[in-house]
Each structure stands twice: as C-alpha cells, then as structure tokens.
Amino acid sequence: MTDPDTGQPMLLLSRDASLGDLQVATTDQAITGAAMAHAAIGNALQLALDYQASTQQRRTEQPRTWTIADSLTGMPLKGTCMSGCSGFHVEWGSGQADAKDFSCTQYDQANTTELPIGCGGDSGKDGPTLSVEIKSYPVHPDEAMRIPHAAVEVTEDHYIEDLDPNGLAAVIDKLEQRVAAMRVRHAELVRIRNEYLGRQA
User: Fold this and answer.
1) Exposure of 137 by Cβ count < 10 A (0-12 exposed, 13-18 middle, 19+ buried)?
2) Taking the domains of the chain in order of start, what are their residue ranges?
C-alpha cells in the first residue's frame, strides 16, 4: 500500500482474519509475523497428519517371507519384506539376486506431485517431484541398509538417498526454507511485473 501523505510504499499487518486491526509494520515485523503464521500452519498440518495416521485402517497382511539364492555365492538368502512393501520382486522369478541389490520399497503414489521439468531446449514433461519412497535392503551385507530409510526423488530418477528420520527432517526443513525464499521472490516478481506493465500503459 502507498502512504497517501508521503507517496512511499508501506506495509500493513493484521492479526485479525477480518482485517479489523490493520497497522503499519516494518519489514522485520512482517517477516516475523509471516514466520509465526507459517509455524501455526505447520502445527495445524502436523495435527491433521497425526489424526489421519491414528484413524487410518492398519494393514493386516503379514509381511512376505522368502528364500532366494545369492547370485554371487549361491548361498540361500532368507528375508522378510518390510511392512507396506509394494515391490514386485522380479528376482523371485529367477530364484536368485545380489544381496546388495535386493530391495523393498513403499511408494506413496497418493502424495506424489508432477511438475513439467525441462532441460536445455526441452520444453519439459511432467515428472515426479519431491516424492518420498521408504526403502529397505532386507539381506544387504551392511545391516544399516536393512533398516527402513527414506529416498527423496527430487525429480525423475534423481534421489537424495539413505535418509534416516533425522535426515529426512533436515531435508524437509531445507525445503521449507526454500519455499519461504521463493515466496519472497514471488513478491519481487509481482512488483517488477507491475512496474514494467505500468511503464507500458
């Protein structure tokens, strides 16, 4: 908004949904207010997700147990799929697999977003963006790889892998910071476009 007395731009803030308490604010106050609102939204979202998790019907099927041969040594590999595994396990058809490569994966198709991402002169095609897979390598020689962990598909076939819960939380924090920064750039884009269009009028 522009100050009618000075002609200078100014910021107005309100803590009332009906905008009944508008007051002039500094940039720091606006940033602090936005951060508080963001935290409140985050808390509400977490409550909703916690409620959803507590009310969802639990899977009742038993995890699949199997035995295949190690393709390198010929020794039997006996394992159990992690809970919620949706992998096809084509290795079962051949009856053998490399212990390092046999993996269980839980896909989250319902929460996968696609965006048109291009490269160079490519106009872009829709591809999965920021989807999260939960993975496990149930017979991996490194026991740490057997523990379920996350892989964030940043864009198609490009992953941030081997994330434990703290690692995934750190990625989420970084993305939240980037979204906040993108909102600042969005506001700057709106300002620059309006300034440009004003010159064309």
Assistant:
1) buried
2) 1-56, 65-163
